[in-house]
Amino acid sequence: MLYYLFVYLKSHYNVPGAGVFYYISFRAAMAIITSLFITLLLGKTIIRYLYKKQVGETVRDLGLAGQKEKQGTPTMGGFIILSAILIPTLLFARLGNVYVVIMLVTTVWLGVIGAIDDYIKVFKKDKEGLAGWFKILGQVGLGIIIGCTLYFNPYVVVKEKVVKEPSTNEKIIISQGQGSYIDELNRNPNTLYAANPIKSTATTIPFIKNHEFDYADLLSWYKGDYKKYAWLVFIPIVILIITAVSNGANITDGIDGLATGTSAIIGATLGVLAYVSGNIGFADFLNIMYIPNAGELVVFIGAFVGACIGFMWYNAYPAQVFMGDTGSIALGGIIATFAIAIRKELLIPILCGIFLLENISVVMQVGYFKYTKRKYGAGRRIFKMAPLHHHYQKLGYHESKIVTRFLIIGIMLAIVTIVTLKLR
Predict the structure, then answer these.
(1) Separation of alpha carbons 310 and 41, rounded Å
(2) pTM exceeding the 0.85 threshold for the entire prediction
(3) Which of 42, 96, 141, 409 fits a 20 to 30 Å CA distance from 157?
(4) Cβ distance 321 to 314 under 8 Å?
(5) How far apart are alpha carbons 328 and 403 in whole angstroms?
(6) DSSP labels for 97-120?
């Protein structure tokens, strides 16, 4: 909203300083600051209200150290995170941008699903919360909406590179063995972008030269015009990614500060990827896919990172508030949708490695237990407890040490993710 106000003031009244709102970097910085301010200010008020209404967490006795002390800690703190994401985005982002609209819909949609789950747990005293099939249905529904929008919306496009013949002077330099130098520092004279953007289901493959893969190619066995049926592959993949990452974040939210800290690291990395993908200069230099208008997502992800960091003020050990499913389901869905929008979803196994490990640990534990129960009559376990962070708690590690080490791993994975821009 403020973007449109200041653009109007600049164009009609030439108000000094109003033109700074044209810059994505400025608006992203303002989104971060505002989200931090909202989280810290609004957080205290919401926590006080939750205490007053006795909206406390019901903790099951799992034999974990420090678990009993968590009993009664306010939950549904995800409202703090959602508010700190939505308000700055509405203030500083260009709301006519299709990518921003997609992210706003994702935030509200999954926030509502998580809030219903928390409401059932807290006020209906049902520890199971919302039925698992209903959560999945909600995630699938969102996946269909996001998939259809990204596939059919005319403003979701990419620009293809067109290689032209080098000039005579460039040929001489290349023949003298300086071709790599020109390719790295002077790429623009030899490459340019097509004037008209195109619809595409192409995405980025890490560690591969000319690293793009078109989902439509999965239908290449069909002899007809298979590309017009690419949505049959693309939309189910979107649904799968959103569901998997959303549930991964939900599972990771088991000890103080782990989900929020991990999400902040992932969000900051996605912000870098969105900025370079939406900037024609950086996209050309890094030889990555150029996505027009995707740079506006940096404003949204700035609010996201600020909200996560601000929430950690209250959620770090010992937690004064839990985000509940209101926050955790939304965080994972936001990360998944954002990655898909900037065509970096195949980097998720690296960037979201913590979520992946937590998910895999649960699948392995449950699968192995059922298998051994059928085979030997008594179930056996791979880990002392799943998800993985509880395994380390059972080994005697303090949860603050577990969180710190997981975050260090998350930072390492984020660095590897960014390095893939050039390491291929």
Answers:
(1) 10
(2) yes
(3) 141
(4) yes
(5) 16
(6) -HHHHHHHHHHHHHHHHHHHHHHH
Closest CA to 64 of 295, 402, 292, 293: 402
Cα angle 42, 24, 302 (rounded to 5 degrees) comes to 35
Label residue 172 exposed, middle or buried (CB < 10 Å: 0-12, 13-18, 19+): exposed
Please, which residues bridge with residue 204 across strands? Answer: 212
Q: Tell me, what amino acid is at 166?
A: P
Interior/surface letters 290-326, b for 16+ CB within 10 angstroms, e for the rest: bbbbbbbbbbbbbbbbbbbbbbbbbbebebbbbbbbb
Q: What is the pLDDT along the chain (424 residues), one digit of tens a residue?
A: 898 999 889 888 899 988 999 999 999 999 999 999 999 988 888 888 888 876 766 666 666 766 677 777 888 899 999 999 999 999 999 999 999 999 999 999 999 999 999 999 888 878 778 888 899 999 999 999 999 999 999 999 998 776 555 555 544 443 444 444 334 334 444 556 766 788 999 999 988 876 788 999 999 888 778 888 999 999 999 999 999 999 999 999 989 999 999 999 999 999 999 999 999 989 888 888 899 999 999 999 999 999 999 999 999 998 999 999 999 999 999 999 999 999 999 999 999 999 999 999 999 999 999 999 999 999 999 999 999 999 999 999 999 999 999 999 999 999 999 999 888 7
Report the distance separating Cα 292 and Cα 157, nearest Å.
7
Q: Minimal CA–CA distance to 264: which of 323, 215, 306?
A: 306
Q: What is the spatial distance between Cα 274 and Cα 347, in angstroms, rounded to a whole number?
A: 13
CB atoms within 10 A of CB 133: 8
* Radius of gyration over every alpha carbon of the chain, rounded to an integer in angstroms: 23
- Per residue, what are the HEC states of 28-75? HHHHHHHHHHHHHHHHHHHHHHHHHCCCECCCCCCCCCCCHHHCCCEC
Spatial neighbors of 86 by CB under 8 A, at least 6 apart, are 104, 107, 108, 303
3-state secondary structure of 3: helix
Report the residue count for the chain.
424
